[in-house]
Amino acid sequence: xxxxxCYENLxxxxxxxxxRLPSEKFIQKFVLKFLDDKTIELLQSSWEAENYEEAxxxxxxxxxxxxxxxxxxxxxxxxxxxEALRGGVTPEAKELYPKVLADFEKTASAIxxxxxxx
Length: 118
What we know:
Layout: H1 3-10, H2 14-20, H3 24-34, H4 39-48, H5 52-69, H6 72-85, H7 91-116
Helix pairs in contact: 1-7, 4-5, 5-6, 6-7
């Protein structure tokens, strides 16, 4: 699998990220580092503890990482969750949270499949 195919599988925009970052090797480095990031775990533990202020920060961090890497699918859902949590937990946030987890899993699975082919 190529890096471009990985982006297709995770719902990302390879052309956008390649226009912003200097090389495929550079993009690959940060795509693979995404798997080591623990922010999704922070989102989950904060959510379970009903610490929605911390969940907001975690969702915002995920959104930012996804914007930088052009992970469009996860960026969109994490952005929506961030906005829904901006003033505290809302019914909309409760609907969006599982979507973010599903989009994260899709993203992580695509990256893991790419990594296995290296």
